[in-house]
Amino acid sequence: MADTYSLIGGFYSKPSPPLPPFFLKTPKLPLHFPSKSMAAHFHCSSNPRPSQPSLLVFSGGTAFNGVVEELKKLTVRVAHVLPVSDDGGSTAEIVRVLGGPAVGDIRSRCLRLADESTSEALAVRRLLGHRLPINPQQAKSEWYKILEGEHSLWEGVSKPYRETIRAFLAYFQNEILRRPNESFCFSNGSIGNFFFAGARIFFQSLDAAIFLFSRVSDIPAESLVLPVISTNDRLTLGCELWDGTIIRGQNEISHPTNIIGPVDKGRSSVPALPSRIKRVFYMSSEGTNSLHEVFPTVNQAVLDQLSNVDCIVYAMGSLFTSLCPSLVLLGIGEIISSRSCPKVLLLNGSHDRETSGFSASSFVTAITDALNRTYGNSHNCLRNLPSQYINTLLVPKDGEIPIDIQSLSSQGIFDVVIVNSMHDPKVGTIFDPVSLINALGNVVSRYMRTKD
After folding, report:
1. How many percent of the chain have pLDDT more than 70?
2. pTM, entire model
3. How far apart are CA 21 and CA 18, in angstroms?
4. Which of 183, 278, 296, 405 is most open to solvent, judged by the fewest CB atoms within 10 Å of its CB?
5. 3 state SS of 17
6. CA distance 196 to 46
7. Where are the domains of the chain?
8. Greatest CA separation for the chain
9. Are the C-beta atoms of residues 240 and 278 closer than 8 Å to each other?
10. What is the CATH number of domain 236-295+310-451?
11. CA angle at 442 for the pair 441 and 446, rounded to the nearest 5°
12. pLDDT in tens, 301-322
């Protein structure tokens, strides 16, 4: 018998096995998406705002989130490029049981960009930003209440949104039930991650899942959330230390823990690395050493944005596990080095496990090496200078990182701007968001004046 296909939201898909009776009351998806192509490129068809500068920001899912709201006041024409290799927290459990790329950082940024102008928008954001309890039994019980539509989190969410979100949460649950040999732990699970995973698996497209999430949370059309690698496969990050040690897994590199629960990305008491990090690379999902290195293809949408934006930003955060996974891909260094726009590094305010003992010039060297792929396959290496990748440093006042002006000058970097800072009890010195965006706006406006 020939395969039959069902139509949900405009996408044709092979039907899954019948849902258990528990889920038969799950509503159909009301939103209409004409095609996967339109879903993947929805933002491109909107009317641009040429009076606002366009930015591309390389970041992870945590540190830069604190300034996203303030950035909206400067411009909404921002392409947020995020890695999909995070294997910590509740993301790890989804990847373990269902496979696929990590969506936690993408979900986190989407929530920060989500509309907050109405009570319903706030209700949707609250629902998709909710985390289940740490206790596994309590988490599972609360999950079923949410799934059945009986939880108080649904208050304020209208029927169309409710049916859309529940449809994909139910699909996520069905995918778990189809794997009887794997016991899924809901502890500290993110409802937004579950929604994302359900949409990605259903559409077999990470881009389509981001599009759907953007529609549901009403993200500005000019704001792009781009996975640096658009894939349905699991991605594993590895790193090589200068002493030759190979570490497998982003969380093991940055915040090693054996506990299922929230990952502390602050100044936690994790053990120091035995040696500094030499490079990061992607490895096969079962790989254990550099012989298992793989070379995934960069998302073409990222290259397109890099070629046209008015400013490129390397955000603060985990240097080797948030920034470098995006920078080591073929094509990234080539385009950045060819651009004459501002290329701004937002320096961290404190050291972490990855950057112990680093100065400002050490950050520049690490980024340069990643973009040049200095320590990878010799056939893929570039020889570009640091100043071809970074021409401006924004530095938080009173931060821990030494600002070695002479070394920066020798790297060809002369524009170093001190920005007002504030103290965060978890991570130490951080940028004051208003001051940071004002300083970034000044850098971009200088360029825009010369461009005109």
Report:
1. 86
2. 0.86
3. 9
4. 183
5. coil
6. 23
7. 6-227, 236-295+310-451
8. 73
9. yes
10. 3.40.50.10680
11. 115
12. 999 999 999 999 999 999 999 9
